[in-house]
Amino acid sequence: MNKTTTPPSKPRNTGKEAPKTKVLAAILETVGPDFAGQRLDNYLLRWAKGVPKSHIYRIIRSGEVRINKKRALPSSRLVEGDVVRLPPTRLAEPKKLDRVISEAQAKTLATDIPILFEDEYLLVIDKPSGLAVHGGSGVQLGAIELFRKARPENAFLELVHRLDRDTSGILIMAKKRSALLEMHRQIREGLTDKRYRLIAHGAMDAITGTKQLKFPLLKYVLENGERRVRVDPKGQPSHTNIRVTEIVQHDSACFTLVEAQLKTGRTHQIRVHLQKIGHPILGDDKYGLESGDKQLKVKHLFLHAHLAVFSHPKTSEKIRIETNLPKRFHDFLAQWDSRFLAKTLQPKEID
């Protein structure tokens, strides 16, 4: 790999400590199969983490970035075997946590997360509640960063989909770009089946069979910058199927076990749809029932992605992945009904 260096420019004295940076030398990279078909700008954004998009586009348009010694556009698609020239670029130093957590420590942390399925194309984990899927917005290390750090041998590792930080369960990652694109196609065309188990406030005894919830969802931002979602006619079409699996009624508590099937995959979709019908999910700090959670002494979101069905991105074989309910579900249910001490709570089929 050819390398050249250029001296960094002298920072302007502003009286403030300048952020620590490092300079990457100009290099020539040969595009491998995992990045074939990717746009040039997206390829560079992955290479130069922390560099503003505006700078990425500038160095492409100025001709500093070249493909096979020729100028290219940000939208140019890479082909396996292409040689990409990457110019000297100043990068922000890695976040403190990235420097502190070693590969060995990441491997130890990753070992505690159950792997439900893995081959050369996919990695499927049982994500615990409280672990974000990726860093950002105050989160320094998410599941994807953790597994990238723990598995440096995987040149490509990307999220196929997302889960909310407090939602536990099945999380799929792609180990090849071709697998990522194929999984996205299946999701986009409605060829996958994703099911969730949840506990909702109140008795949903009026619901029999499968109930379709079709409420358009619109994203908005609170004054403090927090992002939320609400039902709004101007929102995106959203569709969730739900089925009641058990109703628990007690002198001081009443709640319902529900299986939800995503037909679309909007942000916070299940949580907002359950709120809309008057049965918010237990432990939901954004769309929940605070008084009810306090009464039940609930501290965690009771939403778990327990089932995923899809076609293997390479072989087209039908893959069905299931995971058991986490301990917090069983511990909570057993407080109110002794039947749940040994009950497995097998899911019922949604029509």
Question: How do the strands and helices of this protein lay out in sequence?
Answer:
Elements: E1 3-4, E2 21-24, E3 26-30, H1 40-47, H2 53-61, E4 66-67, E5 70-71, E6 83-86, E7 89-92, H3 96-100, H4 103-111, E8 115-118, E9 122-127, H5 143-150, E10 158-159, E11 168-174, H6 177-188, E12 193-201, E13 210-214, E14 217-221, E15 227-231, E16 239-250, E17 253-262, H7 269-276, H8 290-296, E18 303-311, E19 318-322, H9 327-336
Work out the count of structural domains: 3
Radius of gyration, CA atoms, in whole angstroms = 24 Å
- Please report which band the strand proportion falls in: under 5%, 5-15%, 15-25%, 25-35%, 35-45% or over 45%: 25-35%
Q: What's the mean pLDDT score?
A: 86
Give the end-to-end Cα distance, rounded to a whole number of Å. 56 Å
Structural class: alpha+beta
Number of helices: 9
Beta-strand segment tally = 19
Low-confidence stretches: 1-11, 93-100, 344-349
Annotated CATH topology of the largest domain: Pseudouridine synthase
The CATH superfamily name of the largest domain is Pseudouridine synthase
Description:
This protein has 351 residues and is an alpha+beta fold. It folds into three domains: 20-92, RNA-binding S4 domain (Structural Genomics Hypothetical 15.5 Kd Protein In mrcA-pckA Intergenic Region, Chain A); 96-177, Pseudouridine synthase; 192-301, Pseudouridine synthase (2-Layer Sandwich). The chain is built from nine helices and 19 strands. The strands form four sheets. Strands 8, 9, 10, 11, 12, 13, 16, 17, 18 and 19 form a ten-stranded mixed β-sheet that branches. A five-stranded antiparallel β-sheet has the order 1-3-6-4-5, with no helix packed on it. A two-stranded antiparallel ribbon has the order 2-7. The longest helix has 12 residues, at 177-188. The protein is elongated. Mean pLDDT is 86; it is low at 1-11, 93-100 and 344-349.
